[in-house]
Design brief:
The protein is α/β, with parallel strands linked by helices and 228 residues long. 33% of the residues lie in helices and 18% in strands. One of its GO terms (molecular function) is hydrolase activity.
């Protein structure tokens, strides 16, 4: 049995793992789903990492899974607590000396189409275009699953993506990048290239879009089970 610590990405919450959690539990694993303070404009990636470590509690050698934006959080967690394995699920990967925003502006990492669906309010971005959210985040989910997910999207502070990652190597933790071949947010080709370069990570590939925890939870659970 392994403990999987599941860390959601931008605009989501611990709720997004509700279809994956029972699949992992059926395979004999313990699951901790974390709620990040991502709607707090004052919170930083360091604060996100502290929230993950607090939620982990006394978990021994957990496997920490970070989705999307939370790829920036995984190395910070590994600096604070023992982590057996870090899983970058359709996730951004930090580049020392640059911010996520710097990487996005350079091109090749994300599809800027998602920016058209957002508006800014109170230090955060929110999804203002529900149809575009469904198209980009949940295109391969059942209609009812996608609708429920869109209804629960929350604000995401836009400060953390502008934080410049400190210079120096990322923590030397065993890592795997799970890439979804039809991801419409994070370019799969970018992940395939960058994960081995920056993390010396193995790359596993699944079909489908950016949210496999909702669209194909059993398949994702089986991939994670193989790491446990």
């Amino acid at each position: 049995m392994s403990t999987f610590v599941l860390v959601h990405g931008a605009w989501h919450g611990a709720w997004c793992w509700e279809r994956l959690t029972p699949e992992l539990e059926r395979r004999g694993h313990r699951v901790v789903a974390v709620d990040l303070p991502s709607d707090d404009p004052a919170a930083t990636f360091d604060d996100y990492a502290e929230a993950v470590v607090a939620a982990m509690g006394a978990a021994t050698d957990p496997i920490v899974v970070g989705h999307s934006l939370s790829g920036n959080v995984l190395p910070l967690v590994a600096r604070r607590a023992p982590v057996r394995h870090a899983v970058y699920l359709c996730a951004m990967i930090p580049d020392p000396g640059r911010s996520q925003s710097d990487q996005e502006r350079a091109g090749g990492m994300t599809d800027p189409a998602y920016l058209k669906g957002l508006r800014r309010t109170d230090g955060c971005t929110v999804w203002a275009d529900a149809d575009l959210a469904r198209e980009l985040l949940y295109q391969d989910c059942a209609a009812d699953v996608a609708a429920a997910a869109v209804a629960r999207l929350r604000p995401q502070a836009y400060g953390p993506p502008t934080e410049v990652w400190p210079s120096g190597p990322l923590p030397a933790v065993p890592a795997t990048a799970i890439v979804c071949a039809e991801d419409r947010i994070l370019h799969p080709d970018w992940s395939r290239r960058v994960a081995p370069e920056r993390l010396t990570a193995a790359v596993l590939e699944l079909p489908g879009g950016h949210s496999p925890f909702l669209s194909r939870p059993a398949e994702l659970a089986e991939a994670l089970h193989g790491l446990g």
